[in-house]
TrEMBL record:
Pfam family, any one: ABC_tran
Protein name as it appears in the record: Cyclic peptide export ABC transporter
Listed transmembrane segments: 53-75, 132-162, 230-253, 265-289
Signal peptide (from-to): none
Keyword set, alphabetical order: ATP-binding, Membrane, Nucleotide-binding, Transmembrane, Transmembrane helix
UniProt xrefs under InterPro entries: AAA+_ATPase, ABC1_TM_dom, ABC1_TM_sf, ABC_transporter-like_ATP-bd, ABC_transporter-like_CS, Cyc_pep_transpt_SyrD/YojI, P-loop_NTPase, Type_1_exporter
Domain spans labelled ABC transporter: 328-550
Membrane topology: Multi-pass membrane protein
Cited PROSITE patterns: ABC_TM1F, ABC_TRANSPORTER_1, ABC_TRANSPORTER_2
Entries under Gene3D superfamilies matching the protein: ABC transporter type 1, transmembrane domain, P-loop containing nucleotide triphosphate hydrolases
Top-rank taxon: Bacteria
Originating species: Dyella jejuensis
Residue ranges of domain ABC transmembrane type-1 in the record: 15-291
Length: 550
């Protein structure tokens, strides 16, 4: 049902036109057969009227078929494009936790396999509507020829459908299982690519990764795919048998039951043969519809339902000028990670107020909650309890995206884009070149046509480029999550002694997550986390304004 809604939401008119053209092709094809059937009865006699009818019907059958196909190709290319864009937008607008929880494997499977399956079914749909219409037109003709024989045909058909359903139902669990295994296989593909070094370095790990994870999953998928394919092939075989049964009845049984004119019998034989193609195609398309339903369900389970309104974590409003802020405050703020066995980590309650222009170092041991705090503070995760306020205004679902736009960040799991998106004109390009120079990368990286010439650099150099991005964004609040961890001692010093004070001097608010205790005295204030809570919040000293411009 959801599939039908989706089909009609996307390109309803061309799909309808294609279906109508398909019906016209099928009906005119069937009409050609009635002319043939009629002429077979008068072999040897000439009729120019019949010849003209034959010619017009044949041309109509071929041309409408071509039109129907062309419309389908036109629609199909657009449907696939639209779904790719829509699903990407859904992923962009979904809350970050939804994206993280789903994982790369499931999302990539949705973007590739599921979209392909749904698009295939959408494209099949009008063609199969046309096939169903052709079958109905054929049956109408059969009823006109002999109602009682046509009724027997309908009865046999109904039995065939019931039989198909009984057999095909057994394929469903394997279809679902094969699709679930595909997610797992993609996550192993990720390991294969991202963990290639680790796998190359250790023979036993490599062997076990293949023998315990990747190969069994691929084998399992093969088994399930084989199972549902043979079950449906068997069900298709049953359907084929029905046509032979129909032909057999027309040829061998019906003449003994009651007198039927030879033209009636040949009509039944011809129509049985003609219907065979469309009905076989209809039955053959059923797996595609089943696969598409499974794919749609998968996408919905990811929290990214296509074609339905959902909770948006991003706003499409134009970026308006914002008045400078005075303070950000967290009051009794709580956030929990849910594991399989309930809550796995709780941040908070956290109470803190950060005033504009402060340089705050957030410190603490591994797993104490610093990065989680950063994600809440920047509005990347919605908090579970307590309040987040900007100048006294509560931050919630409606204004979180706008709130986020005040931050420039380099998070610990940052991603570096080769293009510096979101900045236009030569101004940023000149700025970028200048900053690249200041970051000590001038001999490595250039800005060419709005793109960085390379991002294939060392970890530390890549992080400098991430910093470049943050500088270009030029927002009010900077947040760096262990930015200096990969830097050499000289550049670490530049970061703490030049860059941070320069940002402060420029009126920026800076939050630095750091393990570099030798530089802690560079902060205005130190906030220490332990087990998800602030255990220390102390002023260090007033930072002198820096002389170095960033
Ligand atoms: N994506 C996640 N899913 C589930 N739990 C998480 C996730 N990220 C962090 N946690 C939980 O939150 C705790 C705190 O993690 P967090 O990354 O905030 O610590 P941290 O202080 O930044 O550590 P580090 O100094 O090692 O970066 C972890 O111990 C873990 O239990």
């Amino acid at each position: 049902m959801r599939l039908l809604v989706l089909i009609f939401r996307n390109s309803a008119l061309p799909l309808l036109l294609s279906a109508l053209a398909g019906v016209a092709a099928g009906v005119s094809g069937a009409a050609v057969l009635t002319v043939i059937n009629e002429r077979l009865d008068h072999l040897g006699e000439t009729s120019s009227r019949a010849a003209w009818v034959f010619l017009v019907l044949a041309i109509t059958a071929v041309s409408t078929k071509v039109v129907s196909k062309l419309l389908l190709v036109w629609v199909s290319t657009r449907v696939v494009r639209n779904m790719r864009v829509e699903l990407s937008e859904k992923i962009l607008s979904a809350p970050l936790r939804t994206v993280e929880k789903n994982g790369r494997g499931a999302l990539l499977a949705a973007l590739t396999t599921d979209i392909h399956q749904i698009a295939t079914a959408m494209i099949e749909f009008p063609e199969q509507c046309a096939n169903a219409a052709i079958a109905m037109a054929c049956f109408a003709y059969l009823f006109w020829l002999s109602w009682w024989l046509a009724l027997i045909y309908v009865g046999i058909f109904a039995l065939g459908i019931i039989d198909y359903k009984i057999v095909a139902r057994r394929a469903q669990p394997s279809i679902v299982e094969a699709r679930s295994l595909w997610d797992v296989l993609i996550s192993y593909y990720n390991d294969l690519i991202d963990g290639n070094k680790e796998l190359k370095m250790h023979r036993a790990r490599r062997g076990e990764f293949m023998s315990r994870s990747l190969t069994p999953t691929a084998t399992n998928m093969m088994r399930h795919s084989w199972r549902w394919n043979w079950i449906l092939a068997l069900a298709n075989g049953h359907t084929q048998m029905i046509f032979f049964a129909l032909l057999g009845i027309a040829l061998f049984v019906a003449p003994h039951v009651s007198f039927l004119a030879p033209q009636v019998l040949s009509g039944f034989v011809l129509m049985s043969l003609y219907m065979g193609g469309p009905i076989a195609s209809l039955v053959g398309a059923i797996p595609n519809f089943k696969l598409a339903e499974v794919s749609l369900k998968k996408i919905t389970e990811l929290g990214l339902a296509l074609g339905e309104a959902d909770h948006r974590d991003v706003s499409n409003e134009a970026d308006a000028a914002r008045p400078p802020f005075g303070s950000v405050e967290l009051r009794g703020l709580v956030y929990s990670y849910e594991g399989e066995e309930g809550e796995s980590f709780r941040l908070g309650p956290v109470d803190i107020r950060i005033d504009a222009g402060e340089l705050v170092f957030v410190v603490g041991g591994n797993g104490s909650g610093k990065s989680s705090f950063a994600r809440i503070l920047t509005g990347l995760y919605p908090h579970d309890g307590g309040d987040l306020l900007l100048d006294g205004e509560l931050i919630g679902d409606d204004n979180r995206d706008t709130y986020r736009q005040r931050f420039s960040t380099v998070l610990s799991d940052y991603h570096l884009f080769k293009s510096i998106y979101g900045m236009t004109g030569s101004e940023w390009s000149n700025g970028a070149s200048h900053l690249i120079d200041r970051l000590g990368l001038a001999r490595k990286v250039k800005v060419i046509d709005g793109e960085l010439s390379t991002i294939d650099l060392s970890q530390g150099q890549r992080k400098r480029l991430a910093l470049l991005n943050a500088f270009l964004e030029d927002r009010e609040i900077y947040l760096f999550d262990e930015w200096a961890a990969d830097q050499d001692p000289a550049f670490k010093r530049v970061f703490y002694h030049d860059i941070l004070p320069a940002l402060k001097a420029a009126g920026k608010t800076v939050v630095v997550i750091s393990h570099d205790d030798q530089y802690f005295e560079r902060a205005d204030r130190i906030v220490r986390f332990e087990e998800g809570r602030i255990v220390e919040d102390r002023l260090v000293r007033e930072q002198p304004a820096a002389k170095v411009a960033v």
